[in-house]
Amino acid sequence: MISFDDYYKKEIEHVINVEFPWYIDLIEDCFNFKRWGFHKIYSGAVPNAMPIIVYESNQCRVRFVWEISTSYGDPEGVSILYGRLHAPIDKKIMDWNGEKHYCWHDDHLALKFLDGLATDSNSKRPDFLQGFYQVNKNRGWRNAEIMARRHAALWEHYEQRLFDIFDLNHPHLWKQYVNYVEEYYSKGLMWPGNSEFPPLHKIC
Fold first, then answer.
1. Residue in 134, 145, 89, 80 with CA at minimum distance from that of residue 110
2. What is the pTM of this model?
3. How many other β-carbons are positioned within 10 Å of the β-carbon of residue 68?
4. Residue 194, Cα to own-chain centre: how many angstroms?
5. pLDDT by residue (tens digit) across 47-78?
6. 114-167: per-residue pLDDT in tens?
7. CA gap 42, 144 in Å, rounded
8. Which of 85, 118, 154, 164 lies in the 20 to 30 Å Cα band around 74?
């Protein structure tokens, strides 16, 4: 029987050599990166992590993480995360002002923040995304393609406002977002963190 380490190594090689060429073509078509000032700075494997594709603009970075399943036969998944320009491409946690912080961020709270929703709002996704899923539910897209087209729709809808959150040149906006994130987690379980993982509201 093939070991998990061998399976994992084989899957990473498959993703980089087979899936990434297709996926890069797809996201280049979906996102129109040049319009937003992004260019690709890396694609491939990283130590102790899933294979990634990273784009960068003069405002922020976006990282596509191909999630390899931990069991045979599961569909692939792709996480699309946003980072400020100091975020290392190969780590999700970094030292910031002497403490560990998360440096890559999904869009969940960012969209609530941009929509002006209260931190205790039960809204799970913006109304326009409800329409996106309804219109495209029968297209037969793979999970990786659904995620790419979803985020491309976000870019078209929020435009520059989404990138401004993560722009180092907008420290006041970032501070507002940090406060929003802290308030959000304070209303639920404020996980204290441990030596390896910081509390969820610690972002940079």
1. 80
2. 0.90
3. 17
4. 23
5. 878 899 999 999 999 999 998 876 555 567 89
6. 998 888 766 666 777 777 878 887 778 888 898 999 999 999 999 999 999 999
7. 18
8. 154
